[in-house]
Write a structure and sequence with these properties.
Radius of gyration: 28 Å
Shape: elongated
CATH topology of the largest domain: Rossmann fold
Strand order of the largest sheet: 2-3-4-1-5
Largest sheet: 5 strands, parallel
Amino acid sequence: MKLPIGLSDFKKLRENDYYYIDKSLFIQDVIERSSEVLLLPRPRRFGKTLNMSMLRYFLEKREESLAHLFKGLAIEQKPEIMAHQGEYPVIFLSFKSCKGPSFEKCLSEIRGVLLKSYQEHKPLVYQTLNQEDKQLYDNLIREKGQSRDWENAISFLMQLHHQQTGKRVIVLLDEYDAPIHAGREHGYYDEIVLFMKLLLGNALKDNSDLEKGLVTGVLRVAKESIFSDLNNLDVLSLLRSEFDSCFGFTEAEIDKLSQDFSLGKAELLIAVLKKWYNGYLFGNRVIYNPWSIINFLMSEDRFPRPYWINTASESLLRDLITRTEPDFQEQIETLLAGGTITTPLNENIVLRDLEYSEQNIWSLLVFSGYLKPVSMTFNEEEPIYEITIPNLEVRSFYRQTIKQWLQKTIGSRRLQHLLSALIKTDFETFGELLREMVLAILSYHDTAGDEPEKVYHAFVLGLLTHLTDHYIIRSNRESGYGRYDVLMIPHQKTEHGFIFEFKKVNRPKEKSETEAMKSALKQIKDKQYATELRDLGVKKIWGIGVVVEKKQVWVESLKC
């Protein structure tokens, strides 16, 4: 059986006997949904384009029958839905490749998508047009249309189909937000948002030629930006239970895959797949990443790798993850350590304003598939979500991002030297290198506030993430009679364990860094922070005091 890696054309997949996990009941869900326009945001590479292609081939009226494409699929058992097969004019547009480095280039790419559609539909609508409509059609095909003509390009084609067939039109718009992400990255956000608002609004709002519209993308871009005029829009994000099994692979589908491909030691293999590619939640349903699963099955060694995170530019996400605010970095480290954080989520993201709102950043990471919600409670009327990293594949993205940022900033060799000095308990060298890095990276503004120790805490946590192959890194948890700052638990209990305590020089109460250091080391000892390590069987334990004052840092150790 051939696996369809990267294949998103449903007709080609079915006619060439590729392996297919049956998602045909998606057609029923769309048809039976009473809403006129549906927006289905899902992470990239979760099957959006393939489902849209399937829907097109099912609904589109053609000269030749395409019933054979659906033979043996679940939808064939739904006679009331099969009655819709081949009954509608369909306009299917994908904007996934419209990501130009300038507004002009991106607009040219969008026009190319529209032009291709006009050429495709010309045999169906052109011959019966009056002279005025033919001229407009010709102008668009020759790319001589005015701005207003392009803004009305979809609605004009809808009008022609309705006039020709007497049937209202199905409009399928795939990856509508790709141009908007490009606009955010390359500096033409406002211009592209305005164009897409007009293009989509003219086609989907109060249009008597529309039977049903379906729009997919990664995000719902803020209502006031794109969808302000669409009062007929039904947004079904991954937080909702509707359509929860239509994108990605469910646990039952993974079981069938393992049977169909005769995977040896299936239980062991599925446990690996769960750790690496499971963990997404659509509504309340557990979902596996289909792109990674298929790549895994196609690999000769069946060895888990981060397939999905390397399939697109993630420069925006990487920039956001390496923000230097101490509270934000502390939350990133909590997530990397396998913990959760709580936050409201905003389904209407204003990409332009991401930097000004942590809530928007967490929302972007959730809806893009880089975090997942695990529970929800209400704070008065506002839903608050507990979120975490979904699996090992995505966790590797965070680790790589922080590692690359640190290596770019301070150099790979110096970073490895610092971590090696720590593991070998060469605290003098560790302290010297840490002081060098602080001078190179942390700004005076970062360390001059009321709580500079938080800045250093977050910074050192970032450094220590490179040791997670050898250590479990924990932060701000209870042990003994208090809460330690950072705990390093070795996987091999014969290795050294470490406890970090961060202190600022509290003047005038503490007249010198020496007094602050005594206080830090005394706290490690008196609060018995080593209790957790001892309970886990670690024998060699070191307490490390890190005392800070602005851009000065001192390091001393204590054997616990």
